[in-house]
Write the C-alpha cells for this entry.
Amino acid sequence: MFDTKDYEFHKKDCPEFCFICKRPSEKFFIMRQIKSMKMVHLCEHCMLSHLSEYYLDNTRPWLGKDFYK
Ligand SMILES: [Zn+2]
C-alpha cells in the first residue's frame, strides 16, 4: 500500500488549473514540486519549462479527477 502522506497535494493546487500558469488544460501532469515535496498539476508547457523544479512522480497510477473532489 502507498503512504498517502507521500502524495499530499500542495495547498494551492487545483486539479482543474495548472499550478504555475493557473490556466485550464486538456491534459495535466502530476508533478512533485521539489521545494515543498508536494504534488501539483502542471500543463504540458509549464512542465517542460520547469523541469528543474518539478519532477514526474509516476509511482502512483492516475486516479482521475473525481478522486480529488
Ligand atoms: Zn501551465
Summary: Strands lie at 29-33, 38-42, 54-56. The chain has a mean pLDDT of 85.
